[in-house]
Amino acid sequence: MKKKKLILVSFDALSCTDLEYVKTLPHFSRIMKEGAYCTHVHSVYPSLTFPSHASIATGCRPSSHGIVNNYVLEPFARIHKWNFYASSLTRRAIWDYAAENGKRVMNMSWPVSAGGKMAYSMPEMSPVKPKVWNLDSFVRQMKVLCKYGTPRFAMRTLLSDRELPKAWFLGKQPNLDMSMMDRFLDAVNRYDFDIAMLHIYGLDDTKHTYGIYSGKCRYYLKEYDRFVGQLMDYARQCSDQNVTLLFTGDHSQKQVSYAIHGNMVLERLGYCTYESKRLTGYRAYLDSGDGMAYIYIKGGDKEQVTARVKEAFAVNRGVSRVMEKQDFENLGCDKEADLVLEARDGYYFESGYEEAADEEGIVNSHYQGVHGYLPDGENYQTMMFAWGEDVAPFQVETMGIIDILPSVCHWLNMKIDPVDGTARTQMWKKRTGGDS
What we know:
Layout: E1 3-11, H1 19-22, H2 26-34, E2 36-42, H3 49-58, H4 62-65, H5 94-100, E3 105-108, E4 120-122, H6 135-148, H7 151-159, H8 164-170, H9 175-190, E5 195-200, H10 202-210, H11 216-237, E6 241-248, E7 254-261, H12 262-268, E8 272-275, E9 278-282, E10 284-289, E11 292-297, H13 302-314, E12 319-323, H14 325-328, E13 339-343, E14 346-350, E15 362-364, E16 369-370, E17 382-388, E18 394-395, E19 399-400, H15 404-412
Parallel strand pairs: 1-5, 1-6, 2-18, 2-19, 3-4, 3-5, 7-14
Antiparallel strand pairs: 2-17, 6-17, 7-15, 7-16, 8-9, 10-11, 11-13, 12-13
């Protein structure tokens, strides 16, 4: 019986808006003929990278797995900490189920995986700012990856390309994506694994900087297609193994022109205080999730404060919805928030101080593309492509990223806890056995 192997690759910000070009690329288009795919995959709320990847790994929404934003909520921090750590998850992830079933996981740059129990791991994390590349930065980076990954694997991977340590630390694209794809191809050939995971984000960076329809996005899509083809070649060469390839995005993006600095609104209401542009106190605080925002209220008279804050943002030209707990408690975002705001198309939220903001807290955006919005918006879905010996030629009309974990665990015959997602069994041919 053939050994089953899963290769799970996340192309950050791969969107249904990329579909027309993707259909012209040889390897993606081949999967659309021979494999399973879905061009309307819903993200989670907020549709941000770290909550989304935690959802792919756990099959659960953010309110269930505990990662409700990219950053840890720290209103007074100078530098906000990313949600790097697997220990922050309140639900089990794919690497936990794999360990329970005696399977070996290989991880390169998967968010919210630092410290997770895996055979080979170089998690997505780097030392905190300042982002200045020097010997001290290099040493700190190596210490972090060795502490929260598997030291030998992380060091070998990072040092096998002389450009990778700097690109990793600075997030320098396209160098980082190109190097990571090469290192991943080397690793799947070199190491014995059951599940291999990779996250790359050059496309996401490009959409943030140049917009979702920029011709520069096509460079990454073309390179990703080349990489898909190389992994298909790898799978064909493993004739004694049963390899499934699954490629997915995590969220889409929207074009933006304006940023809403919501805490400037709260300052004018008397609910935030600043000294030298630093937050020194608050009764109400806005924590940005880019296309959405949480508002946390503390102290007495919460009902009165909540009502005033709600009234102020309800008439803000950049805000489409102001939601109270009964409105957002089933959306999968942080249930500890007092209010949740959704931005209008063309707008997004910022948490920081902004002197130039108008009376509604609005300034011109320094981004062209942003995500975080409700995942059911028009043309705001991501996509999924699966290919392999056991994958049925099938188009899934619609699904969520929370369906990925139960779907692949169904194929791997790994029992999992009750999750928010549903196994998409139509993706698979009739089971033919294997060591799963």
